[in-house]
Amino acid sequence: MPRDTPIAQTAPTTAASARPARGLSRLAQDLLPVLYQHRLIATSQLHRLFTPHARRPVYLRQQLKQLRTAGLVDATARRTGRLGNPELLWYITARGAEAVAYDPTVPRRSYRISPQTAASQLQEHTLTVVETGIAFVDWARRLGDECSPLDWEPEVAHRIRHGESRGVDDAFMIPDAVLRYTHTTGSGRRRMLSFFIEVDRATMQTTRLAAKLTAYARYQSYVPTVGRGRRTTREAWRDHYPAFPRLLIVLTGASDRVLANRVQDLRALAATDPRVSKLTAAVTTLQLLQDKGPFAPIMTPLSGDPAPADVFLAPTGGSRA
Prior knowledge:
By secondary structure, this protein is an alpha+beta fold. Helices cover 33% and strands 17% of the residues.
């Protein structure tokens, strides 16, 4: 099982660490890498990430307008917004992506969002992933922990099969996000936590969501081959993570009763695959995560005791990372 990763000092990854861009305010400089990394973000979400102290995001809107005038970002209307006054969703342009390219704190992404994609049905899923990240940022602020707008990365591909494959789903495990969070305990101990985030808006069949659990289990044990079919001696994930990340499934988009049923269905399906029981995995709702925080007893483990618990901090046979 994963173990604690104690760290003496951690330099937080923040949007503000980017090299200043000529002629832009500090807030505008901070916005660019975040829009580059997260693809599509609503004005209200940017307000909570960058100017939560302000009652209204007047200055934020001014900076977004300046970035748009400069051709660095653009916006589209939210598909589910109010008629006559839809919320704007912001994304970086090709020119803006080039401006971010020198920033060593932002992972390179070959994906570029187009105006067509920004206006597509993918809006709500993308925004929900951002909302999940914001919940961690909000609670980090309350608890004195570290989790910045750049501390989660969407759709990072992890290979789970070598050789010829039948497609992306067969060859790669792609979580909705990989999130990193540095927590300081009551005794002053700092722990670097990693999460695979899987968001379900109650639009996917539970069996398909359960199939993703198998992909995570495959990645946990995947040992790649090197030259002429020879296998390495260590799992691939060890090259990227100090400990295998926890898997957190976040449910939203339906009534409490429907979501509770999905939790039970997921547990039943997880029990059919012995490999899944080796994962440190749990499910919760976005509402609980926002209201109670990631360290409250709001997580229902996918295996074992079904009682909601703090599976991320409570040690079981050793502490976890």
